[in-house]
Design a protein that fits this description.
The complex is a heterodimer of chains A (118) and B (117). Chain A has 118 residues and is mainly β. In chain A, 0% of the residues lie in helices and 52% in strands. Chain A has strands at residues 3-5, 10-14, 19-21, 24-26, 32-39, 46-52, 60-61, 64-69, 74-79, 88-96, 106-108, 112-117. Chain B has 117 residues and is mainly beta. Helices cover 0% and strands 50% of the residues of chain B. In chain B, strands 2, 4, 5, 6, 9, 10 and 11 form a seven-stranded mixed β-sheet that branches. In chain B, strands 1-3-8-7 form a four-stranded antiparallel β-sheet, with no helix packed on it. In chain B, 36% of the residues are buried. The chains are: A mainly beta (118), B mainly beta (117). The interface between A and B is medium-sized, with 23 and 22 residues.
């Protein structure tokens, strides 16, 4: 079974600074997707960034970038120039590729609560 | 991106009653939808996979008779909490992806907060 581990329950960063959230996962698959989702107090799940396992290039989305280390099964999220609006719960998630039904479910980590201070 | 709508966003009910939560994909068709449950300050736990036109697939430990799932069309899945009790109080979230997509992304509804008195 696939598992996703986030070892940092809480992180804090000052506004305009950079923070990195850690995520490791375990899978025997070679083709899969990895995601970082943000959940603000409204509890709406918002996709931050996605990575396809077959792509070696790390994904970037504006101030958000990932460090994807496939061999190490590591998928960290870097937030640059942190803003107050970045404060939220962040979930790392894994999804098998080319499967349907239950086999294509998203498996989430336990989450990291990010605080952004002035 | 694709839009998933969930209704109601919050509901309060008396113990012993049943509550139905709807999950709709507004601009795409979905053969599969997922129902998650989230307790305060915890992660999302998959309850069941809703399959259009067939029975739902439940995760281990989830009571099928308590959490009835129906996926009658390609755009609608419903979760009915039957004979609700206070321990069923939680945040329920559905998600889906267009069957035509190859991005792997799942889109989430706004969630439904259930409080059972």
């Amino acid at each position: 079974a696939q598992t996703v581990t986030q070892s940092q329950p809480e992180m804090s960063v000052q506004e305009a600074e950079t923070v990195t959230l850690s995520c490791t996962y375990d899978t025997s698959e070679s083709d899969y997707y990895l995601f970082w989702y943000k959940q603000p107090p409204s509890r709406q799940m918002i996709l931050v960034i996605r990575q396809e396992a077959y792509k070696q290039q790390n994904a970037t989305e504006n101030r958000f970038s990932v460090n994807f280390q496939k061999a190490a099964k590591s998928f960290s999220l870097k937030i640059s120039d942190s803003q107050l609006g970045d404060a939220a719960m962040y979930f790392c998630a894994y999804r098998r590729a080319r499967f349907t039904g239950t086999a294509s479910k998203l498996t989430f980590g336990t989450g990291t609560r990010l605080q952004v201070t002035l | 991106g694709a839009v998933v709508s969930q209704h109601p966003s919050w509901v309060i009910c008396k113990s012993g009653t049943s509550v139905k939560i709807e999950c709709r994909s507004l601009d795409f068709q979905a053969t599969t939808m997922f129902w998650y449950r989230q307790f305060p300050k915890q992660s999302l736990m998959l309850m069941a996979t809703s399959n259009e036109g067939s029975k739902a697939t439940y995760e281990q430990g989830v009571e099928k008779d308590k959490f009835l799932i129906n996926h009658a069309s390609l755009t609608l899945s419903t979760l009915t909490v039957t004979s609700a009790h206070p321990e069923d109080s939680s945040f329920y979230i559905c998600s889906a992806s267009p069957w035509t997509t190859n991005t792997g992304e799942l889109f989430f509804g706004e969630g439904s907060r259930l409080t059972v008195l």
